[in-house]
Amino acid sequence: MKRKRDSTDAATTSACVNDGNSSSEAGYEVFLSFRGPNTRLNFTDYLYHSLVQAGIHVFRDDEEIQKGKKIEGELLHAIESSKIYLPIFSMNYASSKWCLRELTHMLECSSKVNDKAILPIFYDVNPDDVKLKTKLYRQALKKHKEKVGCDEVQQWKKALTAVARIAGWEMKDKCQGETIKTIVYEVLTKSMSRKRTLPDHLVGIHDHVEAIIDKLNEDSHDVCYLVIYGMGGIGKTTLAKAIFNQISNRFEVCSFLLDIRESAKHQRIVDLQKTLLLEILQSQFLETLTSVDLGIEMIKKTFRDKKVLLILDDVDNRDQLSKLAGKKDWFGLGSRIIITTRDINFLPIKEKDKESSFQAHSQKFQYYKMKEMDFVNALWLFSKHAFEMDLPPHDLDDMSRKITTKTGGLPLALEVIGSSLQGKSKTFWKATLQKLKSVPNREVFNKLKISYDMLELEQQEIFLDIACFFIGKDILHPGYMWKASNYFPKTELRVLIHKSLIKITTDLKFWMHDQLRDLGREIVRCEDINFPENRSRLWEPEFALEVVQRKKVSYCHLTIFFRKSSTMHFPKVVELVSCWYIFFYLTFTLAKKKRKRFV
Prior knowledge:
Layout: E1 30-34, H1 36-39, H2 43-53, E2 58-59, H3 73-81, E3 84-89, H4 97-112, E4 117-118, E5 121-122, H5 127-130, H6 135-148, H7 150-164, E6 169-170, H8 176-193, H9 206-216, E7 224-229, H10 236-247, E8 253-257, H11 260-265, H12 269-277, H13 292-303, E9 308-312, H14 318-325, E10 336-341, E11 365-369, H15 375-387, H16 397-407, H17 411-421, H18 426-436, H19 442-453, H20 457-470, H21 476-484, H22 489-498, E12 503-504, E13 510-511, H23 514-525, E14 537-538, H24 541-551, E15 559-560, H25 571-576, H26 580-590, E16 597-598
Parallel strand pairs: 1-2, 1-3, 3-4, 3-5, 5-6, 7-10, 7-11, 8-9, 9-10, 14-16, 15-16
Antiparallel strand pairs: 12-13
Helix pairs in contact: 2-8, 4-7, 6-7, 9-10, 12-13, 15-16, 15-17, 16-18, 19-23, 20-22, 20-23
């Protein structure tokens, strides 16, 4: 709708990105405030179109709008919904009552919510002019005082001086094109920094978010480090994103650094430091950052007085942490550093002597362990991906429940397998379920194998032993075998526990997630898919007996494990392993030889 304007009080008119058809329902990323006659047809127009071309949703004055005494309607919504304010101070900016009202309201909004930012542009004036240190803006305010009264003018003075103290861009005698590129880059960085994209289907995450927020104790002025840990694919990064989106507006500076492990592997820690520093510094100030040590010093100086929310995603090494958020005194009071990792071995952990009583804690770090989903939420998440429904249809209910049980409540497996089954026939569902009973989903396998590949050789051997033979078994007897193999089981088991690959129950038995068990067995199966006798381990009695009969395996090349089970009725296996005496004899005398293990 078009309206006539008071020609003596022109400020910004309204248009949004879609050719001026704005909607009061829409939110904006940027609000442009400017004095029309000064910059409308040159600098502001160029800046506006550069922002729009970069995909930024911008509100600017572009119509003949009559300005009233109060900010209301669409203009009020535009200011309050925008994340970034760009006031363009020109010679006659202060002569517009409406520009001053906009500025005052922008300052009020940004002071209430931390995720809003004012980025001033000094077009053909100096910051001192806006700070009222010269006559330019003082004279304009003096004229307004005669018409609107002292109280409102006093508010305008405070707004002008407050905004002028914010670091911005001075355009006098500067190339406009290059500066506009810098502004667009800065706006892009800031508009994206406080929102992380979450999956379409979030199930069962609310309780985790609430528990983390309680642990963060936001009322405390201490700097807090919190570690979210758990096995791969369990949803640590998704949880961190949800927390970031919920609390980021309570901090002065926020940064979410993704996939640090991979960046460190490719020597890109300096790039991560630059990304973190971009939250405060403009890009031109980071050109001198050429080394990790310099980056550390810049982080210390930049953030020591700022309340910071920093997410460090997928950290697996103390060195990575020390280069990005090494000490509490790098950050201002009330800062929170959240770390996600599948391996807490590199962190300071106090624990009780018995592995079964393991509970991570320390004075500097708080810990939160991500657990697998319960069956109800797991079926819900699976149904969302497989059917885009909360529950499976009746004809696929039974298979859905079986597949959900097979995933062990691992969100990654539920999402990957559910999505792969969407729209498929019952025949395909049945084939998938049958395959999952013997072979894990390849995408899930590859994700989980990252943790296995990070292990040392002895740790890999112990992990495979547990996956193939010892789930639900007492920890005592395997410990003797590993010691006889010159392993250090107490140390290696602690590493596996801290990497969330195994657990030791209160009655001192091994436990492993079903998906990790399938990972270990698939690694062994892939040693030789066609010929089981060439694999390092056989855990199915039928295969074990068949191989023994076919190859007539010598005692001196075997360590044979006997598992008492009502399902084992193989006389020749029982003859080979008649009692644990043979187990101990073979373990201690032959463990250094090449071993094949049978259950």
